[in-house]
Structure formats: structure tokens, C-alpha cells
Specification:
The complex is a heterodimer of chains A (79) and B (668). By secondary structure, chain A is mainly alpha-helical. Chain A contains 3 helices and 1 strand, in the order αααβ. In chain A, α1 packs antiparallel against α3. The N terminus of chain B is likely disordered. The chains are: A mainly alpha (79), B alpha/beta (668). The interface between A and B is large, with 43 and 61 residues.
Amino acid sequence: MDATGKGKAVIQTTTLAILSGILYFLLYYFSDYIMNWSQQGGWYFIIPIIIAFILSIVHGTFTNHFWDMLGIKAKSVKK
Amino acid sequence: MLKPFIFLILLLGCSLLGATETIPIETIFPLQWEHAIFLLIVGLVGGLISGFIGSSGAFILTPAMMIIGVPAIVAVASNICHKFPRALVSALKRIRHGLVDIKLAIVIGISAEIGIFCGVSLQIYIRNNFGSTGSNIYVTIIFLLILAILGLYNLRDAKKIFKTGEADLFKRSALSHKVRSINIPGTMMYFPSLETSISVLFTIPIGFFTGLLAANIAVGSFISVPAMIYVLGAGGLMASATQLLIAFIIGIGGTIQYGSSGLVDIRLAMIILSGSLLGVHLGAIAATYAKDYLTKLVTGILMVLILFSLAVKMVVYIHDAGHLQLVADTVTTLNFVSFNLLNLALAVGTIIILYAMINGTIRYNKAQRLMEEELALSPHINENDAMSITQLSPTGRFEKILLVTDRSEATVGATSEAIRLAQRTDGKLIAMSVIMINPEHASLARQLIEKENEDTLSHLEKVRTEATKAGVTCDISVRHGIEIYQEIINEAEQNHVDVIVMGRRGMTGLMRLMMGSNTAKVIGYSQCSVLVVPRTAKINGNKILLAVDGSRYSDIAASATMNIAKHIDASVLVVSVVYSDLKEKRYTEAIQEIKRVESFLTKEGIKVEGEVLSGRPAEVLIEIADAKGVDLIVMGSHGRTGLDRVMLGSVSDRVIGYANCAVLVVKL
């Protein structure tokens, strides 16, 4: 990866990390409301599903890029 | 393509209708900071282990939650909830590569939903009638059984692999041959991945028990993946990729059913998720440096240690249920022992994995350095360096050719043309494949990735043999990564290649827009030219079509065309397409542009003809290429990427998508 590519990867990963952090903070801040709603059952099952979807996608994309950015990569085979 | 998804939505709707009634809330687990930090670490280590051993981490995460006092039913419900979105993302990636049997996933998914319904109903029945303690005992018994069976099986396997050095790579069993030969009228269904019809009476129990297990311990892949391989005779890769879609169906179905009873604790699920996603990726990377027996050994040791931890905790649960009288100190000691046995399991797993990774990386880097030193001293490389000095134009040079190939039909044309190109230009070939890794896939079955590694290497060896026969020097390279295009670009940059040769998959329209195209991304981000060859296309040297539009990109394309035309002794058709409101002005400009290029090519002794055409550029270029028997289209790339490419479109993208011949996109 060239210098521009690395810079881009760092910006992308940092943005995702910040976004993920904000989402986790929101989950913590509103956890009482969220738990009260989701534990009512019925159609409130939609709340954990939406939270799981959003956090999984954002945090998952961040973690996918995180190790790559640090240069920790899977072994390549060359012959 | 849409039908299966509509069916899936109906299926999930049915799951909602079947949801059990709401249970009154007793208490919400009192989550303290120390719990959150512990769960974060458990998630991280659980993910690390899960990615390393190639198995779901639920056997670590659910017991860990139970040991800190989370009711078993909530632990299961919360664990089942956090994985399905990523399973869907990974499944979509695998669908793009044609690895998922959507029909098989939906058929198994339907019966799995029934299994989930029965499992959740049973869990709730036990909790309502025997309380939280009864529920804890029930889930613990199931875990003890599963951990005992799988733990011993893995330790036995580790011993076998250590002695023989051979891993069991999911060969088709006698049972699957028998199942495939049975014809039960009225129940037969054709599955593309199995390439035969199989009675749904065999798939129903697989799905049912997968769903039932998932509802009880939050993971069902212990049943479905081996069953698809050993009972139905599916290929290992197809089974693990199909499992991703099944995992999504099970995960969302389970979450709906547990969630509609108010049992999902999203805080716990998301804390576990945050650590596990970081860990699982690192574990999957570490696994590529480790020996086969080691992963089995780690799995076996962990399962046995967690088994002991749960067994100790079981005594406390029995005491809580009032069937055993223990003094308070004994209960505290048992909780302490259970908690620390779990910590020991996590510590042992982490130490072995990190040691394997660090040791493997050091050895790998040492081997790479030695290889590079040997190459630097090789006289062959010096010859090539001398050639590079004589050819200064990077766009016209085809000395280092990177062939991107896999085992699919889509890259057959690219493989033969890359070899021919290297032969004609005296170039060096690097044949590469990328194995896509992602946490969900890595945590399903590591052996399947090993198998993919072996198959890929054997395919690349075949390509090398073919190249050697043609007198071409060929290196091979297998890379692992989360983004295929990124790995291709990294390989190209590391080796300073002049052109990347790729195949073309048949995706068009909405599917192409939704799922993107690795070829388009490689063109967008690479710094060298890209040659895209459809499966049946051949560059015989009949005619090259050079598309020009007066930009500096066209000049670069003209320079590259000159070089190729000399190598393959072909004539060149220079085409400019006029498509604007100012047609007349553009027409005059186009003629001047063509004359300029014609004069440049004629000076080099190349036979040239020029044409100005009107219409939509991509369509016109494809049409004239077909009419004139062109076997290579050359065009410059404006290098748009991301949103810019989506909004403005790309002529080269459309030409690549629909042309019947090879297309060379030349980069500045």
C-alpha cells in the first residue's frame, strides 16, 4: 500500500472507530430506556434487532480494517 | 434472484407468528462496570479463540455469561442475537462468488425455524415451571454433553494429526452416497451445490436439530456443517458458505422469538460483540501461521477446561435448586473455582494462540527475507532489470504480468491469455489467488479454509506447469484478505507489475450495482493497466480497437496500443464516439484526434484505420468491435472511484461488462 493508500486507510479506520464509539456511548446513555422497551417483548423485539444490525455493521467494518491498518495480516504463500 | 429473498421474508414472518407469549419481566441483570470489563475481555479472548480454532465461540461466551450470574436463558438469547447481521454480510459476499446454495440454505432454514421454535418454547417452559435455576441446570446439562463429546473428539483428532500429519479434509462419506441414491417420490428436490436431487426428508432433520441446538446453546453449526458434508455430500467450502445464510436465518429467527418474550439483553450482546469482532479477526490471522494439530489441541483443552468450570458451577445450581445443602463458604469456593477455571481456559487459549502467531510470523518473515535475497542474486532477474532499462514507458511495458485466477470457469480465458501475453512479450508471470477471510467464515471451520488453501495452491501449480510448457517463468502467490481487490492491488504494487490480467464474472445490472465488482475496483485503485478477459475470448492479433476521446488518458492508451500491436502484429482501429448536444463541433475535434493518433501509430509501422461514430459510447464500441472482428479493445481510464463512479458511471466499466472480447484499461 502506498502512502496515500495508508493515509486513506487510517482516516477510514479512525472514522469508523469514532462512529462505533459514538454508537456504544448512545447504547450506554440510553440503556435504561432500551432495556425497558426491549424487555416488554412482543413487537419490541425489533429494538435489539435494529441495534444489533447497526452496531455489527459499523463495529464489524471497523475491526476488519483495524488489524489490516496495523499491518497484521494473514500469511501469504509465495512459491 | 429475488425469489429466495421474498421467501426468506415470508419465513421470518412465520417465525414472528410462531413467537411465544411475553413473559413478565422479573429483573434486568444488574450490569456493573466490572461485569462490562470482564465481558469485553471474554468477548475479545472468545473471539480470538473462535477465529483461531475455526468454531463458534458460543461455547465460551454463553458459559462465561452464566458464570458471572446472567440467567442461562438470557445468556443464550443474547448470544444468538449478536451474530446474525455479520453472518448476512458474509453470506452476501459469498453469494457474490457463487459459493452459497441459497435453495439449500432456505430449505434447511425452514426446518431450523421449527427447531428454533421448539427449542425456545422448551426453554421458556422450563424457566416458567422450574424457575431460573431449573433453566440454568437445563442449559448447563446440554453444554456439559456437547463439550464432553466435542472436547474429547478434538483431543483425539489433535493426537491423530500430530502423529500422521494429515488432517481430515471432509471427504465425501459412504453415508452421503447412500443418501444420494435414495429416491422417495414426492419429496425429491434438486440442489445446485449437490448437483443432484435429494429427498427433503433428509434435510428436515438436519435443519430441525440445528435450530433446536441453536435455541439451547446459541450455536447450531456443530450439526449443520458436518451434516451437509457427511450426510448430503456437499463440498466443504459450499457447506461453510451456505451455513452463513443458515446462521442468519437461525439468528434472526431466534432473536425474534427470544426478543418477543423480552429475553434478549442487548447490552450484554453488544459488549460481547465489541470484543469478539476484534478478537475473531486476529484469531483467523493467527490461524494461518499455526500448525493443524495445534488448533485441535487448543479446542480440546479449552472445551475440557470449560467443561470442568461448568461442572463445578452445576453443583452451585443444584444447591440453588434446593436439592443439595452446602454451607455458604463452600458455595463461595465453588463459584471461585468455577470462575477461575474459566479464566484459566481463556488464559491458556490466549497464550498458545499469541505464541503461535508471534513465532509463526518471525519464521515466515525470515523465510521471506531469505527468498528475496536469493531472488536478488538470481541472474534471471538481472536480465529482466536490463530489459526494464531499455524500455522507459511504463504504460507500454508488459514485462511483469499479474494473473488473478481462481478455480472458476470465469478465469479460464484470463489464464490462457496471460500466458500467451507473457510468451509474446518475454515477460514474467505471477499467478495469484486471493482467499477471502472474514470472521464468520473463519469461525465456522478452519479446516475448510485449509482445504481452500490446498485447492488454490494446486490450481496455481497447474497454471505454473502450463506456463512453463509455454516457456514462461511463473511465480505463484496466495493471499488472504478481507477485500479481494485490495489484495490484488497490494500484490501488484509489491511486485511492480505492468499489467493485471483478470477474468470476468457474468454479473450485470442491479446485482453489479449492489454487490460492486472487484474488477471495477481494481481498475479504479490500481496504478497499472488492467486486462479483462471474458471466458472464451482470445487475443489472436486480428485487430485492436483503440478508443480515444481527446483526453490525456487516450494518449496513454495509444502508447500502450502501439506496444501491443508490435508484439502481436495486429492492425489498429482507432474509434472516437461523439455523444453530445454539440455533435458537429465534437465531430471535428474527433477527426483531428483520430488523425493525430493515426499519425503516431503509422510512424511506428502499424497499419491503422480510423472511424468517428455517434451514439452511446459503450454500446457503440461493443457493436463495432463485434462487427469488425476485434479481439482486443484498449481504452484509457479516468480512474474514477467510489461515489463518483456510481454517479457518473464509467464507459470502461460498461465495455468490460458487455464486450465479447478482451478489454485493456490503461492507467495513467
